[in-house]
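Figure 2 data, in text form.
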Amino acid sequence: MRRAVVATPLFARRLNEFLLEYADLGAVRFIERLEASYRAMLENIGGFDQIAPVRRRTVGGKSVTVREYLLDAGARDFLVLYWVPPESSEPVLLLNIRIGGQNRFRWKE
């Protein structure tokens, strides 16, 4: 059974920031590779519950078990945090995204 995949506003804002930054630089091929990797991720995490490594993270003061998915965009990697709810009827929730070399996720603007 395929699950829907839903992005949080934080994830959408961070992804948009990255896309705008690289669009301003004229990195068209980079953005195309990122889009292809992103589409593959959506297919994979929507179809398989246990496809990525599990990590315990503290989000908003609560300890949550999340999964990490690596998006390969060629020159850079992006790490996506997402949560798979225990109920199979609930959608997979994309929580945050960061550039692979950064040490921490930003949870605030």
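Caption note: The first strand starts at residue 5 and ends at 7.
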